[in-house]
């Protein structure tokens, strides 16, 4: 019978890679909570209209990449391609928009996009994201960017650089858009078919195209930061002042535009050197009109999404290793039915105290058990057989020194706890 393979563009995560995943998730939770963000969990799928309105009808995500399906009652749903729209929907639906501001949430979610699988890009991916609502100041921008920077630094990443830009607001962007479209029309013969379509729907996306010919056109394109209104200019200056004052290095990059329609003013990316074409490990920005667009009150917003797979690629490229599974404090080698039961009892008592303990459940020979104990790196090994059970005493061996201590069976848990600091 033919084996069933995992779907293309998905992954199985197990040891040793799962240690890296767990380490990253533990780190992002700790940092987010330190910044006062609380976790939010939203459905894996939503009505498709949420993403059409929130992400943008003209985006590649909505037009080409969403996994959608029709429910039995005829409702169109989509697996979430990103997290922000769902968070906004949850805030509105659950009446959180009237809570004390700012609202600060974070999430670790699985997202789904139909894309060509490659290193750092898959069809199901895990994203760490943050959202802050009700804070229109550049100080909020800095706080969110600082949170992302703190996560990356605490994970040990050094070759990741912050790139920032401003794409303006509804007041100044139409002027810029007109200038950009005029420029792109003059160079339309050098643009790919996708960018020719984007010229009339979302022309700033042309600046983000990876096609070599389009990149050359983008290099000479008008820059958003040269067409900002006074308010957007002041906002960007305040953000840069905060980054400078707090020692967060950055590059002002006019080519950072982000791919979703809801962005305004600040946009940013953390870009890793050396992990190939998918070098953006974190991206985000400000979306001051999104809450209102989805039926809620007018409320400023800012956040980011960080791809866990790309963070792992960056960590591996820099040779960063995650903490591995803790080794057993005690391995109990058993021979005989009574010894097996006693071994399970001792292991259970130690585990209930938070101490890693193992005993044989496979039925190995004593010699094989000792080899296994050595492989696990256990600090102590206890050998239990008929002789030890009858005497009520056993030899506890410290593997590093080969020293042995004879103990009453009832003393073993206390002895290990004392040395473990419990």
Short description:
By secondary structure, the chain is of the alpha+beta class. It has helices spanning 17-34, 48-54, 60-65, 84-93, 138-154, 173-186, 193-201, 212-219, 230-245, 290-293, 308-317, 337-352, 366-376, 386-391, 412-420, and strands spanning 38-39, 45-47, 68-70, 76-79, 103-112, 124-133, 160-166, 250-252, 264-272, 280-286, 301-307, 330-334, 357-359, 380-384, 393-398, 404-408. The strands form three sheets. An eight-stranded mixed beta sheet has the order 1-5-6-11-10-9-7-8. It has a five-stranded mixed beta sheet with strand order 13-12-14-15-16, sandwiched between helices. A three-stranded antiparallel beta sheet has the order 2-4-3.
Describe the protein.
This protein is of the alpha+beta class. The chain folds into 2 domains: 17-172 and 228-317, Bira Bifunctional Protein, Domain 2 (BirA Bifunctional Protein, domain 2, 2-Layer Sandwich); 330-415, Rossmann fold. Helices cover 38% and strands 21% of the residues. The protein is built from 15 helices and 16 strands. The protein has helices at residues 17-34, 48-54, 60-65, 84-93, 138-154, 173-186, 193-201, 212-219, 230-245, 290-293, 308-317, 337-352, 366-376, 386-391, 412-420; strands at 38-39, 45-47, 68-70, 76-79, 103-112, 124-133, 160-166, 250-252, 264-272, 280-286, 301-307, 330-334, 357-359, 380-384, 393-398, 404-408. The strands form 3 sheets. The protein has an 8-stranded mixed sheet. The protein has a 5-stranded mixed sheet with strand order 13-12-14-15-16, with helices on both faces. A 3-stranded antiparallel sheet has the order 2-4-3. A hairpin with a 7-residue loop joins strand 9 (264-272) and strand 10. Helix 1 runs antiparallel to helix 5 (138-154) and helix 5 packs parallel to helix 9. 41% of the residues are buried. The model has no long low-confidence stretch (mean pLDDT 92).
């Amino acid at each position: 019978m033919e084996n069933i393979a995992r779907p293309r563009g998905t992954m199985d995560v197990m040891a040793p890679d799962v240690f890296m995943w767990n380490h990253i998730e533990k780190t992002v939770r700790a940092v987010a909570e330190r910044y006062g963000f609380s976790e939010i969990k939203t459905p894996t799928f939503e009505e498709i209209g949420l993403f059409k309105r929130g992400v943008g009808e003209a985006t590649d995500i909505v037009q080409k990449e969403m996994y959608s399906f029709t429910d039995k009652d005829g409702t169109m749903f989509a697996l979430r391609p990103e997290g922000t729209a769902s968070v906004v929907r949850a805030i509105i639906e659950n009446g959180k928009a009237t809570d004390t501001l700012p609202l600060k949430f974070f999430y670790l979610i699985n997202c789904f996009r139909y894309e060509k699988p490659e290193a750092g890009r898959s069809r199901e991916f895990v994203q760490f994201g943050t959202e802050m609502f009700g804070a229109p100041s550049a100080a909020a921008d800095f706080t969110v960017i600082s949170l992302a920077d703190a996560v990356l630094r605490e994970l040990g990443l050094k070759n990741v650089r912050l790139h920032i830009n401003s794409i303006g607001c509804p007041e100044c962007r139409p002027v810029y858009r007109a200038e950009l479209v005029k420029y792109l029309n003059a160079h339309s013969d050098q643009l790919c078919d996708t960018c020719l379509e984007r010229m009339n729907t979302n022309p700033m996306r042309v600046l983000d195209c990876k096609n070599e010919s389009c990149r050359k056109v983008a290099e000479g394109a008008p820059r958003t930061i040269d067409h900002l209104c006074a308010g957007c200019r002041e906002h960007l200056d305040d953000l840069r002042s905060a980054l400078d004052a707090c020692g967060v290095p950055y590059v002002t990059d006019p080519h950072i535009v982000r791919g979703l329609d809801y962005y305004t003013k600040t946009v940013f990316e953390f870009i890793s050197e050396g992990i190939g074409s998918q070098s953006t490990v974190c991206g985000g920005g400000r979306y001051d009109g999104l809450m209102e667009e989805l039926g809620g009150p007018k409320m400023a917003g800012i956040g980011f999404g960080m791809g866990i797979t790309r963070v792992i690629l960056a960590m591996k490229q820099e040779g960063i290793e995650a903490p591995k599974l803790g080794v057993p404090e005690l391995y109990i080698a058993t021979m005989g039915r009574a010894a097996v039961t006693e071994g399970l009892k001792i292991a259970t008592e130690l585990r209930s105290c938070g101490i890693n303990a193992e005993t044989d459940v496979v039925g190995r020979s004593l010699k094989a058990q000792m080899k296994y104990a050595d492989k696990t790196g256990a600090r102590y090994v206890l050998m239990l057989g008929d002789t030890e059970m009858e005497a009520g005493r056993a030899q506890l061996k410290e593997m590093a020194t080969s020293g042995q201590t004879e103990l009453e069976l009832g003393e073993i848990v206390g002895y290990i706890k004392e040395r473990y600091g419990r």
